[in-house]
Specification:
mainly beta; 264 residues; 24 strands; six-stranded mixed β-sheet; single chain
Length: 264
């Protein structure tokens, strides 16, 4: 709250003629992990139920950003607490990679109902979306350990799990994997036996623990795709319809993505 003062003439002391109340958020910083809901508490003055925020490249902008797990515009029920809408099954082309972005605020009123992204003109701070970059791919040989290197933002303390199919699957092929470096970008995939697994495409899915809310112990908690994984047959085998087959006499089986070759 500020005083509004007026000066009535030269040499005359200014007089207070009113008060100006400025309502809005105090710029702060927030973090959210990909694959899960994003909740945060704004600080500010005069915040009200119905206030709206969105994540943008800058304030204002025409396009609100979508991530793996959250995005869009969120309205507050009590003024300061926000939960971004849950976003699932976005195409990679529609999903923003992790990074640090602008959090922009809007107060509904006569000028705008805050349903338009461009109405969010007031900076409310910065928000970092943490997790792996999209469109990463890895190839590993069945029967051997495999070192996996990922790229992303804020990967520290993240976990991996190998799931058959997509990252909303409940069928896990490994237990939870913890990173082998402090940056959270290196992992070791244990050897997957030829007697249990065949050549296939699977998903390396990522999860960042968050206290009691997210333990990253169950397959359904690993919702963010870290990389597509090609499980391939080792040298001396070739890919059958669902398993790795021993190389036949006279064949050449180099393993990996190579197919069975006839030495003739």
């Amino acid at each position: 709250t500020y005083s509004v003062c007026a000066c009535t003439g030269e040499g005359t002391a200014s007089q207070q003629i009113g008060q100006l109340v400025l309502s809005g958020p105090k710029e702060s910083t927030f973090q959210c992990g990909l694959g899960h809901s994003c909740e945060f508490e704004l600080q500010g003055y005069g915040l009200e139920a119905g206030d709206s925020v969105g994540i943008f490249e800058s304030c204002p902008d025409e396009e609100v950003l979508m991530f793996s797990g959250f995005g869009g515009l969120a309205s507050s029920r009590e003024g300061s607490g926000f939960k971004m809408p849950t976003i699932r099954n976005l195409n990679a082309s529609d999903r923003k990679d992790p990074g640090t972005f602008a959090l922009c605020w809007c107060r509904p009123g006569n000028m705008s109902d805050c349903t338009s992204p461009s109405a969010h003109k007031t900076p409310a701070g910065l928000i970092t979306a943490m997790g792996p970059y999209s469109l990463q791919s890895v190839a590993c040989l069945l029967g051997s350990e495999c070192e996996i290197s990922l790229r992303g933002v804020g990967m520290t303390d993240g976990r991996l799990m190998l799931l058959s199919g997509s990252c909303n699957s409940t069928t896990n092929m490994t237990d939870m994997l913890t990173p082998t470096n402090s940056a959270g970008t290196l992992f070791t995939l244990p050897a997957l036996g030829l007697e249990l697994f065949g050549p296939q495409e699977a998903s390396l899915c990522w999860c960042k623990p968050d206290g009691d809310a997210i333990s990253c112990s169950e397959p359904q908690e690993f919702m963010a795709l870290a990389a597509s994984l090609a499980l391939q047959c080792p040298e001396g085998f070739h890919a059958g319809s669902s398993s790795c087959l021993t190389c036949p006499y006279g064949g050449i089986c180099n393993g990996g993505s190579d197919h069975l070759l006839d030495c003739d």
